Amino acid sequence: MKKSRKPKTENVVTFMPTGEYYYKKALGELKKEQFAKAQKYLKRAVELSPDDPMILMQYGILQMEAEQFDDAYELLQSAHALDPNDSDIVFFLAEVNAHLGHFAEANRFANMYLRMDEDGVYLEEAMEIIDFTEFESGGDLLEGAPSTDVLYLQEKARKFMERGKFKEAVELLETIVAEHATFWPAFNNLALAYFYVGEEEQATALLHEVLRHDQGNLHALCNLAVLAYYKQSYKELKDIIHVLEKIKPIAVDQRFKLGATFALLGRHEEGYKTLRQLQKMGFGEDPSFYFWLAHSAYFSGRKERAHQAWLELIRLDPTKEGFEPWKLQEEEESLEGVENDRVFLTEKLQSESTSSRTVALYLMGKSVHLHDLVAHPSLIQVEKLTPFEKLIIGYSLNHEFSMKVPAEKSFVEGMKVADLLYAYHHPLTLQHAYMYDMWFVMMERALQQGYAFKNTKALAAATAYMYASSRSKQATKKEFAAHYGISVPTMTKYINELMGFFPLFD
After folding, report:
1. Are residues 207 and 348 in the same domain?
2. Concatenated DSSP letters for 103-169?
3. Is the per-residue pLDDT at 144 higher than 70?
4. Structural domain of residue 120, as residue ranges?
5. What percent of the chain has pLDDT over 90?
6. Domain count, the chain
7. Mind listing the pLDDT tens digit for each residue in 326-384?
8. Would 321 be classed as within a structural domain?
9. DSSP state of 66
10. What CATH number corresponds to the domain at position 241?
11. Are the CB atoms for 150 and 180 separated by under 8 Å?
């Protein structure tokens, strides 16, 4: 009979790391200037100890150094709520508000720090913040200025708009204006958000309401001009521009708004002069500033200055390389094709036909009007596009696709066929546009059936021949095969394959 084995009693100590543990590890990494590791440990520390003000403060400081000012602000606000008597947290709240441009709040927290700790280690820095904020605001730090919370929500709404989340922006901005009846920046942004979701009348009415209460509100006037431009209300636009031309703002943000608006409206000379003056004053470090400076410089005939400004933009935002608004013009592409016909592209983009929209989304990527079309608030409503259309617009905007993913690789190969057709036939006529219509119908069906698009040159030749032969009996396989540099049997093989995706055979 086997003896039962008694389990051994062991003293097992389970190690459960705490927020304090990761906090100390982060401090150790900071001493060694290993900021990436410190960031990782502090993030974990906050997850484990979300109510520890010291951990929140330290993580907030690190986020500030990484220029993640919105995240830093939230962390420091949380730390201050947990420990309102900690003077260090108050100082860093002053600093992050200064970075965010909330000068009234930065000034308030800096003064609060001096009252809380007259001999504090950040005494000199606090005084510098006070001097800086008073200078930047022209000494106009009124008690009635909006709170940091309101400014933060306004900034959050603006970022929603930048990411195309207009409905979320509308909800947030409506809350702000309901509680702050004279906070005009929120009214202006809400008007733009209304316009982006198709509420044009509400947008216009709201801007007129701002001007009734604040007659010289430059942002409202500029926004009205932009709305009139996109609505093609040219008489109204002319009247507003006449007013804008007389305005000579002093505030930096107003000069920027005016210059960028002039540039967008095609008043490149006025836009360039306004923005160039700002640059001479030292204004910069804002990608959108350099975009409009480069845009207005180029189209007012200052090409060298435009390229210099674009290099500054790429320094700040490397993803913009290759997206110069004048790129196709510099390559001396012909402007005669339908790809450069703004009216044609606009009509196609607004078409009820999916295939027509697809053609326009592709040709948009070859057009000198690319940036204007993409910037239009209502022409391209991404949420209403089909999955195939979304892929096309991504391709037109130089989105990177993974060639390791079979479906994406097949899509890219299909688009190479479209590019070959463009290379052989541009500038495109209206008939070429119909050829693209046919190609994209076949391509979408082929993708749905897992087609690999192996010989792109033969597929391009087959497509061109199929379209031409449907319009004229004079088209020959020999002619098209020679034009594309392939044999007639090869082209015939791919004609037969494509016929399987042609709508006629449904």
Report:
1. no
2. HHHHHHHHHHHHHH-TT-TTHHHHHHHHHHHHHHTTT---TTSPPHHHHHHHHHHHHHHHTT-HHHH
3. no
4. 19-136
5. 21
6. 3
7. 775 555 444 578 888 888 888 888 888 888 899 999 999 888 888 778 877 778 877 78
8. no
9. T
10. 1.25.40.10
11. yes
